[in-house]
Amino acid sequence: MKIEITPDKAKAKSLLEMAKITLERLNEINKEKYPSNTLIDYYDIIHKLFEAIASTNGIKFKSDGAHQQLIDYASKKYFSEKERIFLQDMREYRNRIHYEGFNVNINYINSNSKIIEEIIKKLTKLVETMTN
Counting Cβ atoms within 10 Å, is residue 28 exposed (0-12), middle (13-18) or buried (19+)? Predict the structure, then answer.
């Protein structure tokens, strides 16, 4: 459910900082040894950045499907349909890891880390611009 809130740049800055810290930590581990944890961290970073964007725009998503709605909301404004589908697939993998004990194959990380890191860079710059 989409609700309107007061835009909150301070919250967005905090979320941005947490995303940067998570990325820094992620870059210090062996991603190939822990592919499922790597995917969870990548997703967490992207989710925090999407939340930061929504916060600066005075939007909040709650209840069932909030993550899916957040991805759709931000993707319509800042990403292509192909990227939106990729992000939704990534969300589904993350959910399967959390709720089903699914293990991500290292090939997924090796094949997709470049696009994921490009998305993170794009979102980081966007949030920095929105909060300055």
Answer: exposed
Report the predicted TM-score, pTM, of the whole model to 2 decimal places.
Answer: 0.96
> 3-state SS of 61-102?
ECCCCHHHHHHHHHHHHHCCHHHHHHHHHHHHHHHHHHHHCC
Q: Which domain holds residue 117?
A: 2-131
Interval 39-80: pLDDT, tens: 999 999 999 999 999 999 999 999 999 999 999 999 998 999
CA distances from 85 to 79, 88, 90, 98 (A): 10, 5, 9, 20
Contact predicate 49/124, CB 8 Å? yes
CATH code of the domain covering residue 103: 1.20.120
